[in-house]
Amino acid sequence: MLKINNLHASVEGKSILKGINLEVKPGEVHAIMGPNGSGKSTLASVVAGKEEYEVTKGNIFFENEDIEELAAEERAHKGVFLSFQYPVEIPGVSVTNFMKTAINATRKAKGLEDMPAKDMLKMIREKSELLEIDRKFLSRSLNEGFSGGEKKRNEIFQMAMLEPKLAILDETDSGLDIDALRIVANGVNKLKSKDNAVVVITHYQRLLDYIVPDFVHVLYNGRIVKSGGKELAHELEEKGYDWIKEEVNA
Amino acid sequence: MDLKEKLVSSFLAFENHVDIDGYIHDVRSDAIKVFEEKGFPSKKEEDWKYTSLNSVLKEDYSVFPKQENALDYKDVKKYFIHDIDTYKIIFIDGKYSSHLSQTTHDGIDVCLMSSALNKPKYQLIIENYFNKAATKDSLASLNTAFSNEGAYIHIPKNKVVEKPIQILHFSTGKESATMLQPRNLIVVDENSHVQIIERHQSLTNNPVLTNSVTEIFTNKRAIVDYYKIQNDNQHASLIDNTFIKQKRESLASVHTFAFGGKLIRNNLNFYQEGERLDSTLKGITIIGDKQHVDHNTLVHHIEPNCESHQDYKGIFSDSSTGVFNGKVLVNKEAQKTNAFQSNNNILLSDKASINTKPQLEIFADDVKCSHGCTIGQLDESAMFYMRSRGIPEKEAKALLMFAFSNNVLSSVKIPELKQRITKIIANKLGVNLGFDL
Question: What's the pTM?
Fold first, then answer.
């Protein structure tokens, strides 16, 4: 589904990703861990198509198509979703209207008519129940005045609405208390299928107790320096990242 | 002959053309003298530093209406708020159109200035209010000199006017260039409430210059909500001079939606002549090409315990230019004044510019006054956020601009008007939102 070959990327002339190789197949859950500043969020943004990041070398293939030249919205239309570490506030645009706009834009790109209002409402109801979101919440301005937990839950709600093939969750666990974490993880697990894939980017192992990865990768200094199964996450939780750094630097 | 000379020399002919009443004749004669002495403002004047009238004064305007022109409702329906019942006072090339209008004398007077100026039954109101709020600067004086037609609205006390009133000025372009001097008088007595929508619309590419004066008197505990839609074509310019006098415990608000025209200058002046009253001045400006919009506001806090709220948003693309010059004057007696002013701008192009200048002159010592202005670009992280959800760049930009102007839009109290403004904005931004904000 996603195949990244020798990816190098820089922002404002500063090289951040220095040769990433990663393959994600349908049905898989990958975790990308690593110390601060290792390039985790950059990797997520580059895959999602943030224009400030310049790919200087290598390729990103999504379903066998090189997506490097595609705009962020075109990647979204193909089924790439990024849950933001810091969701942006959009005052004056309700969660519901935002979702309508996003879904109908995606449908339009696929040559489909707007989703009938009745179907939209039904879908909104189902997905908001899945994430235990209060209906009143949906008429509020997007992310404006939301707590950290509400913002993250809203991100996963959007993911549920958009039904992406590949979901990248960037530090979705940060700022969540244990109840919110459980709700969010539960939502992600329910959305998982053999046809879609999830990449979880996290600093801590905590979220991985709920969303169990098939593969764990350690990103350090712009490269994946170690890959393993879910036990690698436990090892990192116990021993921290210093031993990895030592191994790499040795 | 330049425009000033032409206007001055046309004055006698104009006065012969309309009925001469003793009181108004004197007012007009004094006014033309003021204009003759001062002339059109130039950039040398502090208040006109960033707006030059040169480009609009060079046309050879026909300076007062010569003939009556007619329009079919179906051709101009789109300029009306037509999905609700309203009173309508409609002018075509400066002449009243009874065909398009819907006036009333049933408990309230919603009619024309020309008849109010001539009929004895309005004489008392005219003598008490006409030209009592307008200042003696050159442009207001010019309008006063040629004042003859416009909207006359008098709401006696304890009336809540259910239907909004629309004032529309059309110009047909039958003359190669037209100058219009509409004059509106609005008097709202104790405890009454009225909503008014004003629009100027040119229907051809022939140049139009409108120098409008509106005087609004908001008496004790009255409520006036006034909405200005300025969405004209690239050949029409507007100088809007609005003067509002408020008595105690009254609420007056003016929303100015400046979306188009060659040059727009809004001189909006509030005078707070009573205690515990509230003035609201809000605006959204969205322009492009080489358009120019200048908001020049004054709030004069004369009495204690009053509030004023100013919130102006501007979005400028291409080579468009904007000016916000907001003056708040707080008299020594006006203790416990709360005066807020905010002006936020987004520049979408390197060639667009905005000059924003808050001016506070405070002579009282127990007041809360704040002002803030910002100039920025669209938030890139918000753009990426929306695009990553599949919303194309153009729509994402539009949503951000709606979000940016939301504070102003959300205080529009007529839902159909709000919808219309939303549609005009969406249209300007070239998007179809598919929902109402």
Answer: 0.88
